[in-house]
TrEMBL record, chain B:
This is Oxidoreductase. It comes from Streptomyces albiflavescens. Residues 7-83 form the 2Fe-2S ferredoxin-type domain. GO terms for molecular function: 2 iron, 2 sulfur cluster binding; metal ion binding; oxidoreductase activity, acting on the aldehyde or oxo group of donors. PANTHER family: OXIDOREDUCTASE WITH IRON-SULFUR SUBUNIT, OXIDOREDUCTASE, IRON-SULPHUR BINDING SUBUNIT-RELATED-RELATED. The lineage of its organism: Bacteria, Bacillati, Actinomycetota, Actinomycetes, Kitasatosporales.
Amino acid sequence: MAASSTSPSPAPSGHQALRPNTAGTSAPSARMGEPPLGAIGMARPRVEGMAKVTGAVRYAADEPMSELAHGWVVTSTVTRGRIRDIDTSAALAMPGVLGVLDHSNAPRLNLDAGSFFGPDGGMHLLQNDEIPHSGRPIALVVAETAEQARSAAMALRVTYDEEPYDVDFSLEHPAARPATAFFGEDATVGDVEREVAASTVAVDERYVTPEAHGAAMEPHSATAWWEGERLQVVDSNQGPFLVAMTVATLFHLEPKQVRVRSLHVGGGFGSKSGGCGPQLVLAVMAATMFNRAVRVTLTRSQVFQTVSMRPATDQRVRIGADADGRLRAIDHTAAFEVSKLADYLENCTELSNTLYAARAIRTRRTAVPVDILPPYSVRGPGATPGSFALESAMDEVAERLRMDPLELRLRNEPRVGPVSGLPFSRRNLVTCLREGARRFGWATRDREPRTRSEGHLLVGTGMAATSFSAGALPSTASITAEADGGFTVAIGASDIGTGARTALTAVAAEALRIDPERIRLLIADSDLGPAWSAGGSRGTTSWSWAITGAAAKLRSQLAGATLPLTVSFDTTESLGALPPMERHSYSAVFCEVTVDPATGEVRVRRLLGMFAVGRVINPLLARSQLVGGMIMGLSMALHEEGVRDPATGRHVNGDFAGYHIAAHADIPDIEADFVPDYEPGDPSGIKGVGEIGTVGTAAAIANAVWHATGRRHRTLPIRPDRVLEEPPPR
Amino acid sequence: MTDYTRSEIHLCVNGQSHRLNVDNRRTLLDALREETGHTGPKKGCDRGQCGACTVLLDGRRVVSCLTLAVAADGSDVTTIEGLASDGELHPLQQAFVQLDGFQCGYCTPGQLCSAVGMLAEHAAGWPSAVTTDVSAEGPAPELDAEEVRERLSGNLCRCGAYPSIVRAVLETASRAEVTG
């Protein structure tokens, strides 16, 4: 089976053809035995691209509705305590106001509803007078227009009985407890203490990352209304089927009573996964109470305050190595914040279990409950902050051994999973490392830090190795061979900007052996059947598997069949039959930074990632996702920090002026490319590309800052005040 | 009785005339989205920090979330829906599609309107914070990647399409120079 090209062709540069480039597809019929068309592997613009550049696509808050009422969310101004009273009298008398929902009158919810980690009190809004964290939604004001609702919301008079809170997170917090073993037990291989003692060099350092937000450009919005016994919802989320199931549980409804659509979603990055956002809980409550279509759109500040974020982490990494660079021990203890309202696992030790061979590996994951809203996945959950710790520590080992950090990685390639003992399905890390180093010009790098300068700027380079787990989760697709020669492919997928529409069209075209233009793809609707969401880098793999399965089934039944003919395929059984293996994507990230010691400003001048991500469905779109992921990693390294004020417990920088994400001027031209790769445990040979770009970038940048300045930064972000140097005495 | 909370205004949006009776608190962004049916401009932050609501107001780029509708009375407004003419995409729109200058597409209406306004500012000789020679008699700044990045930094993109956006803008600008 052909692997992806090492140098995928760039986007077609001609401006005349705006339709997807389908050159070479001569529209053969869907008969058996014809060769694949090569729909997979071709760079094509997005199928919805024209609609996106003309403003024609509609996101959740854009759907025109008649008789629409607007809800305005009111959030707690204290961090912990109880609501003494909400005086609604002034608000209710204001023009256009339909009513106010709060804990005294809101519908009762099923408190078992939650995420994979169990019941999630973050969803159980307006059920009692308790304030568990700052910014907790405590009321919804519903009015004819958004201005009226907002104005009335400001007229609510809320009084509280405040209680002490605790947001003082650290590894040593007295409430620290072992984290849930949702993704498997902690690792205990060999004797870490003995191996560290026998090592020539040993690194033992702490690495700290702050709360970080998905901060998708589209603020969460939901519109809900009843049609008879059926609840209709248009919502911003990463997986309409899973959201519909959560809503059904939460509101004591039959699953078939709930339909959720999310036709276009303005980014997710984890912030629209995890079940059911506050906008949706409140919109359904209001639609039920007022028997109207109600739209609830969070403000940007409310997105920061009420939507899950990546928890802060505090990690200790010990690595012991022999003089030749072979690792004796990896000991990774990772603490992260959780809310008292819900359990969660920030699986920081994922890479420590699989990236390097060592005689002893010990991982310990520790959850620290504090008074914050429930954290949840943000792009590359666990792996991203965990990689910062592990790959910074590896750089420190190389420093102490006076060894090239690239060479250190190459010397510690495992033959089987270092903890699991399982074989690797495909492990192409070395190819990424060598090819990345060649393109970057790594061989000429100075061994000593603080060697190069250009004028007043210090210049340094750094690198990191990365893996991210690959796989698929159960999904169902159906395909109808239509009488007019077209094929309708239906799957409850979600395109949050990943290019799922374009990728799945190519996958279906190849599986059916037809021209992509004959495919009508239906996604983003919970009525299309059970499907995994756009999350865990498992969206496209999960949905593609279901589509290829349905296509094979359809092709076997098509001869002489009466049209239209519909078949469905559920991947649950096929997935269960997969032999257990270490299945991962890999990458190597290289970067060059300049540091101005007088201002503390760090700028990334070059950033290059080589990726082994299986067969590449569409190199144009896959590259965009990888580059975007690396930009999020750059932003994490240098800019992003959710600041919780110890004096109030509140998140104090909840907007884009305070919570900095990378802007145009921060970003150089970034190179991302692919090495030939193929996943044998997937019918199309693919792995995910959504998250791996983010994972290794922060460590590569931190290591480059060390190389430029000679100073380690073990706390993110690498802010100017942390880099700034005192001028030398005159 | 006169209602002092509302005003009659006139907006010309993408060449079409609209007479509106607006709440004085209504922003231009909300007037476009809720009253004239232009949902292309997006409310990414509603406080001028993200640029997703950028439109051209009498040819100049503004964040429509920080512009009151009453203050735009009598103005020509161009939104993302109005960049194409006679069914022909604006060259920038074409370049965004071909070079993948977006992923989720939510910031795209603002990026495109901002880029159109920026190219006009550059053509008029306006300097930016990274222009080396800002003297009146200095040469017109050459539009390189650094200039484009600086001039578009008011438009955030969380998907990280920045490198493709800059390529699309530079390619469009160089074509415009060639064709005059």
